[in-house]
């Protein structure tokens, strides 16, 4: 299945059973606006954890009818995170969303060894990008979580991204390992990692996808650029997922796409037992809504 727009993700989410969304520290206007939008689109049923008076005040201002919506009182953001995580662990919710709470206490609750949602070794940020200049949705990872991932962590990051595509119906996404150039240079670790990851994929050590690299970014997303440089293969010029070397390049790429490239994104944290919607205040209302839809579609 080839997904061409984020509206396709919304339709996928609508076609599935409504997911229960636990929002930690929900008294946040942009978050509640996104939740309202997703709720009115029939995608989710929210459970709002936070300062009840503030939640009700904001909801009244944005005309969000809270009739029948559960609100769990907890004014302390860190404790609200713990309660929202507990809802997931107890089977009372399907998706976790960050509200007006710092990322650190939310992830502390998620990663708690006894009461958290830990599943694998590595959590990673995954963004699904709709670009006016690309022929399908494009995954970018990792733009927000792993500062300088070791090789084994990159394997986890790829597996997390591939899981997203599998859940959305693409059983063999094309994964491009990105670096500053398209040849292996022993002095540039990202290129040697790319070659190793490609070999692991060829030998069945990383499955469910087709991996190639290293690619300079032009060769990963432009058939013309790839052919001009004599680069062939399934992934060249037709990538589904771009894996960046580290956080610096990943974050710069992501924000450049958003603010200069006219793109829209949906983003989640993968690697826990459930998708985590963790949006930035700089994200547009549409991106926040699409992030919820992405989590629900999975």
- How do the helices and strands follow one another from N- to C-terminus? HEHEHEHEHEEHEHEHHEHEEH
What is the level-2 CATH architecture name of the largest domain? 3-Layer(aba) Sandwich
Total domains, how many? 2
**Beta strand count:** 11
Task: State the name of the first-level CATH class of the largest domain.
Answer: Alpha Beta
Helix percentage range: 40-55%
Class by SSE composition: alpha/beta
The low-confidence parts are none
Oligomer: single chain
Number of helices: 11
Q: Biggest sheet, strands in spatial order? A: 8-7-9-6-5-10
Question: Roughly how many Å is the radius of gyration?
Answer: 19 Å
Whole-Å distance between the termini? 14 Å
Strand content: 15-25%
Name the overall outline.
globular
Q: Overall pLDDT, averaged?
A: 94
CATH topology annotation of the largest domain: Rossmann fold
Largest sheet: 6 strands, mixed
Description:
With 298 residues, the chain is an alpha/beta fold. α3 (52-61) links the parallel β2 (44-50) and β3. The radius of gyration is 19 Å and the shape is globular. It is built from 11 helices and 11 strands. A 6-stranded mixed sheet has the order 8-7-9-6-5-10, with helices on both faces. It has a 5-stranded parallel sheet with strand order 3-2-1-4-11, sandwiched between helices. The protein has 2 domains: 6-119 and 272-297, Rossmann fold (3-Layer(aba) Sandwich); 124-259, Isopropylmalate Dehydrogenase, CATH 3.40.718. α1 crosses α11 (285-297), α2 crosses α11 (285-297) and α4 packs parallel to α5 (103-111).
């Amino acid at each position: 299945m080839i997904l061409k727009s984020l509206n396709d993700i919304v339709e996928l989410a609508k076609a599935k059973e409504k997911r229960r969304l636990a929002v930690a520290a929900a008294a946040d206007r942009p978050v509640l606006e996104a939740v309202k939008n997703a709720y009115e689109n029939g995608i989710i049923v929210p459970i709002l954890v936070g300062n009840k008076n503030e939640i009700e005040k904001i909801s009244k201002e944005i005309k969000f009818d809270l009739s029948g919506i559960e609100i769990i009182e907890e004014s302390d953001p860190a404790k609200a995170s713990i309660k929202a995580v507990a809802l997931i662990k107890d089977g009372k919710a399907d998706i976790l969303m960050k509200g007006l709470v710092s990322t650190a206490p939310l992830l502390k609750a998620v990663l708690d060894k006894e009461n958290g949602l830990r599943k694998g070794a590595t959590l990673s940020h995954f963004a699904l990008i709709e670009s006016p200049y690309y022929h399908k949705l494009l995954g970018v990872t990792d733009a927000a979580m792993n500062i300088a991932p070791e090789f084994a962590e990159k394997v986890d990051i790829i597996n997390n991204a591939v899981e997203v595509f599998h859940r959305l119906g693409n059983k063999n996404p094309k994964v491009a390992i990105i670096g500053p150039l398209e040849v292996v240079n022993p002095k540039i670790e990202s290129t040697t990692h790319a070659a190793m990851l490609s070999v692991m994929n060829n030998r069945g050590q990383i499955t469910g996808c087709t991996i190639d690299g290293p690619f300079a970014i032009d060769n990963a997303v432009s058939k013309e650029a790839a052919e001009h440089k004599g680069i062939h293969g399934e992934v060249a010029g037709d990538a589904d997922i771009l894996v960046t070397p580290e956080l610096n390049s990943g974050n710069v790429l992501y924000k450049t796409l958003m603010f200069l490239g006219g793109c829209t994104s949906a983003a989640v944290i993968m690697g826990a037992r459930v998708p985590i919607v963790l949006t930035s205040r700089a994200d547009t209302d549409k991106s926040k809504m699409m992030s919820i839809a992405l989590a629900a579609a999975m």
